[in-house]
Amino acid sequence: MEKLRKYKISTKESKGIIDDAMSRYPQLSSLITKRKTSLEVVDLGEAFVYLYNGLPVLVRKENFLIPFIGIIDKYGLDIPKITVDLGAVKFILNGADVMGPGVKDVDERIKEGDIVRVVAEEYNKTIALGISLRNSDKIKERGKSVRNIHHLGDRIWKSIREHITSDK
After folding, report:
1. pTM score, two decimals?
2. Are 81 and 130 a contacting pair, CB within 8 Å?
3. Residue 28 above 70 pLDDT?
4. In the chain, what is the straight-line distance between the N-terminal and C-terminal CA atoms, in Å?
5. Of 154, 84, 75, 139, residue with least CA distance to 109
6. DSSP string covering 80-105
7. How far is CA 24 from CA 18, 33, 66, 116, in A?
């Protein structure tokens, strides 16, 4: 297991991150109950994971602040959803982008550049988060529709799972 760099950030910096996250994902208020707190940060090099009371809640990757994938379904975060068929799941879980032909259903709110969650059709569980490359009416067309930035089984997910379970 690799050694992760972990440190606390100031209450002021934490408050700014929490406020930013709450404005995008209001349902996080059921999880993050105190805005005046000092978040812990796990530095993974290509991403930062923010821990609230030891629980991974947010990821900053490529200047995007997104929820950690493990909390999305658990806390019912209202992130626009794209449902993919089971044939697409294994590719997405290996880091592939979402291609139009694998999309079964699309949230009509989606605009190009939005953070979206990718859900496996049969299980209705979030398997990835990404950036929409198209508006909702064009997502099912041939070509890339969503750029995958965080998925179950990726380095962020594995590192945090190892780190959290090894700390206990």
Report:
1. 0.92
2. no
3. yes
4. 15
5. 139
6. -EEEE-HHHHHHHTTTPPEEGGGEEE
7. 10, 16, 9, 12
For 11, 28, 91, 111, 121, the CA distances from 75, given in Å and listed in that order, are 24, 7, 26, 23, 20
d(CA 49, CA 46): 10
What domains can you pick out in the chain, each with its CATH number? Answer: 5-73 (3.10.450.120), 81-151 (2.30.130.10)
C-alpha dihedral (123, 154, 62, 115), degrees to nearest 10: 0
Three-class HEC string of 48-72: EEEEECCEEEEEEECCEEEECHHHH
Tokens of 151: 């998925």
In the sheet that holds 40-43, the strands lie side by side as: 5-8, 40-43, 47-52, 55-61, 64-67
Q: What is the pLDDT of residue 39?
A: 97
For residue 2, give the DSSP letter: P
% residues pLDDT > 70 (the chain): 95
